Amino acid sequence: MRSGTIVRILGAVAFFAFAAVASPQSVVKLGMVSTFSGPFAEYGQQMLGGMKAYMKLHGDTVAGKKLEIVQRDDGGPAPDVAKRLAQELLTRDNVDILVGFGFTPNALAVAPVATEAKKAMVIMNAATSIITTKSPEIVRVSMTLPQVTEPMAIWAAKNGIRKVYTVVSDFGPGLDAEKAFTEAFKKAGGEIVGSVRTPLQNPDFGPFIQRVKDAKPEAVFLFLPAGAPGIAFMKGYEERGLREAGIKLIATGDITDDTVLDSMGTPAIGLITSFHYSADHKSPENEAFKKAYVEVNGTKLRPNFMAAAGYDGMALIYEALKKTNGSTDGDQLVAAMKGAKWMSPRGPVMIDPETRDIVQTVYIRKVEKTGGGLYNVEFDKFENQKDPGK
Ligand code: PHB
Predict the structure, then answer these.
(1) pLDDT digits 0-9 by tens, 75-106
(2) Closest residue (by CA) to atom 8 of ligand 1?
(3) pTM of the complete model
């Protein structure tokens, strides 16, 4: 073989070797840690459904890079599992951005991992106020409990409710909700006549509901993680005769989440909640989102607030990647995300450059039976609501 041929062969080998190395660099991998099994399996399904809806409308390529989602199931509130999955995603799968996180304990466990790896971490649910302070790489597109709770307290006080009993799930977001409700309600002239915290896993609400009934408040304020717990609580509220006793139920929208609302049935009608997203929100952006969601995911689940957060998380990642020209360096991406503003399916939103939390409208809604089933119909709003805890 002549040396020229050898050089050409070596050249070709080098080219293909280079191409093999170069191609992964034209991909941006999103490592998703969320819940895809067990009683909270819908958390991950909704987030992923929302992310896919965004990609359906905007394509899967941004700043010349193709986006790929690598998903992992944490099975529910399980910080050790979430931490291990995030570490594996970063070291074995070489993901560029961490996304997902339904539960506060999981997000808190992953925060130091993101800091150490210098990878952006986009939170699509976990809503305890303190989370964003745990890593400079964290940006949150969902909500905080104080943010959505304070408007409920103010609205209740304005609408003649004076004595409230608070019931919250005994973990980060519940404690945040209890504190935010109590402070804002007292400030507005209300009185807290009792408060109780229920276990996060498999709670039996019966005895707690009885305690509330015996205290004879005008209303119960409730926070439970979205999903089955709300259905169980509503059942107990009816069965133990709280409605008949004239005790109103007010809550954050986690209880009347679009995923479970129809299964709550008629007892849910009239329930008043405060929240940042309702599938019933009337806007062209929400119509486009819902249409794309159905096209990609079918009609098994109605898109809920976690789907909206998945969609908005992608909107933010796309905009940030455009600004960094495709660089996935965590510090650069987070800098590009700070101050971002867009029109979300929930209404106008902005990432607060100081806190990296989302600023948004919080709506007061009432469950009504409309053509297609039960919906949270918005009738009042608090605009530009920040996390009051920071
Ligand atoms: C949380 O863990 O922060 C959390 C979980 C479910 C919710 C809201 C917050 O509905």
Answers:
(1) 999 999 999 999 999 999 999 999 999 999 99
(2) 225
(3) 0.93
